[in-house]
Write a structure and sequence with these properties.
39% helix; alpha/beta; 14% strand; eight-stranded parallel barrel; TIM Barrel; two-stranded antiparallel ribbon
Length: 289
Amino acid sequence: MGLLGAHVGISGGLHLSIGRARDLNLESFQIFSRNQRQWTVPPLESGEVQLFKREMEGSGLAPPIIHASYLLNICSPEASIFDRSVSMLSDELLRADILGASAVVIHPGAHMGTGLEAGLKRGAAGIKKALERYLEHPVGGRDATRPTLLLETTAGQGTGVGHTFDQLADLMELSGVREHMGICLDTCHVHASGYDISNEEGYRTMMDSLSSVIGIRSVGAVHLNDSIKGPGSRVDRHTNIGDGALGIVPFELLVNDRRFDKVPLVLETPGGDEGYRKDLITLRGLVRG
């Protein structure tokens, strides 16, 4: 089984997320590193970084994953949004580095009607620019703590980019910085985008496609979410494990898939801590042997 985790809150201070993760008996966790509703935020203060790292020591938790703000749209044709997104992504990578996070997860964004090819080219250029800016920072880019940039699989709502493995592969290759990148596989998004993983055959087919197009080793995290909507709906609506269109089968296959033994498996399901507790019981009950 992978490193079971959840997205936990940072209300009151980044360091408090660690206690929340431990209270849920998690092995991994995901957080926002900042107010995700604002484009710009103050830099991390040394005191809060030290407090966070002190709380991490002896916690038994895997290094955190940082989820970038939903404001970010690296594929945007609007110059102001694109530039802001590049700056935000560079800052998220730097904050992740400083906090000792293993990865930064981003939604690639949307092409806003300009076409998929144009969106992919802009996104790739933006990723390259953000990574280079981060690596040039005096604090950033240290080999020991360098976070991986994970492109999250999307549901394909509207003009969203990244709802097929081919699109994600194109983004990584076009960026020219593939060695710094991987993907975050979201079960709800993958299903809603058209990969029907509600049964074993569909799960195997999706994994075979992922393996051939991108590579299983590129999966740096998995978001465990059931989907309210069915395959191909292109609607991103999470629900609790076993309560939606996915059912139990793909989650049983995932938690027993040895290829993900060291990969964070992160819940983003509704219901707060009580919802998480219910889902964690369900998932742990699916582990064989």
